Amino acid sequence: MISSYGDFLNGLSERLRKEGLKLHDIPAALQYKLEIVASDTQLSTFRNSWCHVIMVTISDSPSIDYVKQFSDCGWNFSQIKKLRLVEETPRL
Do 24 and 83 touch, CB atoms closer than 8 A? Predict the structure, then answer.
């Protein structure tokens, strides 16, 4: 049983870290507060390189439009911060 958002976020952060994702403290001037930003990157000269980014925010009353807007905002944020996210998490 999760007693608060803080407990949920701490548990989620720990699970992401255990799965090998790097947690970032990247300031964001967004309409959403990014509670967690995590990424995992694989750089390769022989296969496609990739970077997965997970962003978490909290809302008391999310709607489909809210989720879509957050997704768009997250995509734009990850594109702008891509070099920082990739440089901080190389895994070969």
Answer: no
